[in-house]
Amino acid sequence: MPRPITAVIHQSALKHNLAIARAAMPDSQVFAVVKANAYGHGIERVYQAFKSADGFALLDIEEAKRIRALGWTGEILLLEGIFSPQDLYDCAQYQLSFTVHNELQIQWLQQFPVAAQFKVFLKMNNGMNRLGFTPEHYVHAWQQLKGLASVKDLVHMMHFSDADGERQGQSGIEYQHQVFQQILQQYPGPCSVSNSAAILRYSSQLRSDYARSGIMLYGSSPDFPRHTIQDWNLQPSMSLRSEIISIQQLNPNDSIGYGSSFVADRPMRVGIVACGYADGYQRISPTGTPVLVNSIRTRTLGRVSMDMLAVDLDPILDAQIGSEVVLWGQSSTGAVLPIDEVAATSGTVGYELMCAVTARVNFSIQE
Ligand SMILES: *Cc1c(COP(=O)(O)O)cnc(C)c1O
């Protein structure tokens, strides 16, 4: 029998979450963002559930080729654009749309020797300061691309830095969106604005002909703890499950694991779980990180080691070797431990946990 740790990918949750994005943006094309191997889920494991999306968005041409290999003939958008002039050959061959966010990429397009018909998302840097043209340089870039025979379609694009919260006491979108809209008025055309946080929080205020839904599709709330997945009606799409492989009875003053960082103050029953940081569970997760055993909520105890962690079995009277442990996601009876709660206790976000599951973990697909 393989080691009992498994990442279960729930097809019904992926479909449900995509439907939530669609319902929020009924007038938009809704793209499923599947970068980072579909946020750790595996592109091939989410494809069936997401193939009713209007497009896929990702970063790697190799991942784009995998989607084409699955039979996808619709749109694929490269969110970081091309990394070399040679990439344009792949974009032409595989019909990939891409962002243009710097001057060099425009030169590569100008110099591309093959007749092609590209769809380009021109990215504005209106405050995020990672990629894109500042508003002063944006119009020139727009005009250059408009003049290229190889650019068939041109879409205005921006990315919010604070759609999940406030910025300096004000709405998190206002400081970026105003300048974007001004340019949109002067140079009308389709636009791509919204990520998950903007889809869920600002759908009534924002026009985004192409919505780029990422984290919400995977059942994590982009603005946790302000809103939980229950608030947004999202379902966990990944469940990291394992089992109890040993039970220890502690006496007062006994400790657990490396560094003896947890010391019992009373007699306690402790379960040892086949899950450690080599599976992608955060080593930094402190005593008290939530976990489900037999669908009942309890907590981790002591340090996470490479292959194991310890859980408090006091609330779970019937726990035994082989009992189901849910590190995040859904139990087999449907109890939910949102990944956002585990992440917050560990000082991070759901995005990082779902991307961090390692290669030695088996995956399974569930309807
Ligand atoms: C990752 C990404 C998204 C999706 O963001 P979520 O917060 O996961 O919805 C959207 N747009 C761009 C440009 C991205 O890089």
TrEMBL record:
Full protein name: Alanine racemase
Pathway(s) annotated for this protein in UniProt: Amino-acid biosynthesis; D-alanine biosynthesis; D-alanine from L-alanine: step 1/1
GO BP term (any one): D-alanine biosynthetic process
PANTHER family (UniProt xref): ALANINE RACEMASE (PTHR30511), ALANINE RACEMASE, CATABOLIC-RELATED (PTHR30511:SF0)
CDD domains per the UniProt record, alphabetical: PLPDE_III_AR_proteobact (cd06827)
Keywords linked to the UniProt accession: Isomerase, Pyridoxal phosphate
EC number: 5.1.1.1
Record-annotated Alanine racemase C-terminal domain positions: 237-366
Modified residues (N6-(pyridoxal phosphate)lysine): K35
GO cellular component: cytosol
Pfam families found in the cross-reference section: Ala_racemase_C, Ala_racemase_N
Cofactor(s) demanded: pyridoxal 5'-phosphate
A GO term, aspect molecular function: alanine racemase activity
Lineage: Bacteria, Pseudomonadati, Pseudomonadota, Gammaproteobacteria, Moraxellales
Coiled-coil ranges from the UniProt annotation: none
Active site: K35, Y258
Catalyzed reactions per annotation: L-alanine = D-alanine
Annotated function: Catalyzes the interconversion of L-alanine and D-alanine. May also act on other amino acids.
Residues annotated for substrate binding in this entry: R130, M306
Similarity comment: Belongs to the alanine racemase family.
